[in-house]
Amino acid sequence: MVPAGPVLVRGGRTGGALLRGDRCVPRDAGFPQEEKEKGLFGMKKTGLSFIVVLSAFFLPWVNGVPHAEDKFTLMAPNGISFSEIRGYETWDVIAPSYRTDNKELRIILGNSAMIDSYKSGVPGNGKAFSDGSIVVKIGWAERQSPSFPVAYEPGELRRVEFIVKDSKRFPQTGGWAYARFVYDAKTATFTPWGKDASFAQECFRCHNVVKDRDYIFTGYPQR
Known about the structure:
4 helices; six-stranded antiparallel sheet; 2 domains
């Protein structure tokens, strides 16, 4: 039986040429210009371009949920970058905490410099934390455990905030730099907190009540 129309032959002697009737012809020979502009699925190039544009728009979304941005490219208004704490997810736990006013569960983490300072007796020995020390606080909304109702566990992520010790760069805020990034679960994105660099003064005023502890609230409990 002779094919009724063009047939794409993969491989073989035709090398992917088109068969029209009983003749082997070049891929684009003898076809109307409109057919030449159509792809393998009978779609014009302009249509294919439109699909590429749509794909670029929807690619960041999977199952209706956007992929998380590269948070480490974000920067607080005072110039402190999220990248200052790259790798924080694996840092040592200093302590958990809980705020009753907004029902928020927190975990406080520290980098190696911070942990070493704690272990050396800071701040109880009257000394300050070493420059380079970093404290990270991750806050979640509380959620009642479905499998253990008398317990509460982290629910939706709310924020990640941190402080970096650099006494030379930040003498106006006790030697600490502050940064907070608020999380939006609907868009899976973080937003830097504060309209301008003055937001750090708000943080500093809060931490000033523990000035005698080098402005750090959290202790290092026995473990």
